[in-house]
TrEMBL record:
Catalytic activity entry: alpha-D-glucose 6-phosphate = beta-D-fructose 6-phosphate
Group of enzyme by EC: isomerase
Keyword field: Gluconeogenesis, Glycolysis, Isomerase
SUPFAM superfamilies: RmlC-like cupins (SSF51182)
Gene Ontology molecular-function annotations: glucose-6-phosphate isomerase activity
One Pfam family matching this protein: GPI
Gene Ontology cellular component terms for the protein in this record: cytoplasm
Protein name, UniProt field: glucose-6-phosphate isomerase
Pathway connected to this protein: Carbohydrate degradation; glycolysis; D-glyceraldehyde 3-phosphate and glycerone phosphate from D-glucose: step 2/4
Entry EC no(s): 5.3.1.9
Residues covered by the Glucose-6-phosphate isomerase prokaryote domain: 14-181
GO biological process, alphabetically ordered: gluconeogenesis; glycolytic process
UniProt lineage: Archaea, Methanobacteriati, Methanobacteriota, Stenosarchaea group, Methanomicrobia
Length: 233
């Protein structure tokens, strides 16, 4: 399933109750899970040991298509805190199946970026960017993987207090500004960047064991050029 050999453990699921506070329509109802997160996976004990020795975690997330009262189904949205060097922890995603739309927003809200990605694409979330993943389709399940530091907890406060990201991606194609945000720039597009500017090439799982390729996840302060180039249009 989703390119994963063997059984998956029971997932953590997000339901409509947790998602209502961040939806364009906070009264939207839905039965059953909206998306499933399989966290801290490895295909072998050796891979798991390597990941944890390097303070990293490999997760899978599965987001079936859903129209939530006119809005595409999405993840809740969160920021990452700063590491001991004072730089936000980044993250790397890979689309395994389906299509993903990553909606990024800088903490100072001066930059809002949309990245459309398809199977095989790797997308790096730079330090200081909050992120939401959208499944912008009516009929395809989105399966994606991520590797991220184990050294922090995701921060949801900004997304909850502002009732979602700066923009909502609606099923009619509209990108609607969230009225809870003051003045924000319009959304610009960027490309996934796999294989360019220092973004590794996939498959993401094959990078487990490659300390050089993944060290930006715990030591982003050593990779400022990568992050400067990353979100150029
Ligand atoms: O925590 P949220 O915003 O629901 O997003 C879920 C995503 O974040 C992760 O926790 C990784 O940051 C994944 O497990 C999952 O894809």
């Amino acid at each position: 399933m989703f390119g994963w050999d063997g059984e998956l453990p029971p997932p953590t699921v997000r339901t409509i109750n947790e998602m209502q506070p961040v939806l364009a329509d906070p009264n939207c109802a839905h039965e059953g899970p909206l998306y499933c997160m399989y966290r801290d996976l490895a295909q072998s004990d050796a891979d798991w040991t390597w990941l944890h020795a390097h303070k990293l975690r490999y997760d899978l997330t599965v987001i079936p298509p859903n129209n939530l009262c006119g809005e595409w189904v999405k993840t809740k949205g969160h920021y990452h805190p700063r590491n001991p060097a004072g730089v936000g922890y980044p993250e790397i995603y890979e689309v395994l199946e389906g299509t993903a739309r990553y909606l990024l927003q800088s903490l100072d809200l001066l930059d809002i970026v949309m990245i459309d990605a398809r199977a095989g694409d790797l997308v790096v979330i730079p330090p200081g960017y909050g992120h939401v993943t959208i499944n912008p389709t009516t009929d395809e399940t989105l399966a994606m993987a991520n590797i991220v530091s184990t050294e922090f907890e995701s921060e949801y406060g900004e997304y909850i207090s502002r009732r979602g990201a700066a923009y909502f991606a609606l099923c009619n194609g509209e990108i609607r500004k969230n009225a809870r945000y003051p003045r924000v720039p319009s959304v610009r597009s960027a490309s996934p960047g796999s294989g360019h500017w220092g973004v590794p090439k996939g498959p993401l799982y094959s990078l487990i064991g490659d300390e050089k390729a993944l060290s930006f996840l715990n030591y982003p302060e050593r990779f400022s050029t990568l992050f400067e180039n990353l979100l150029r249009g």
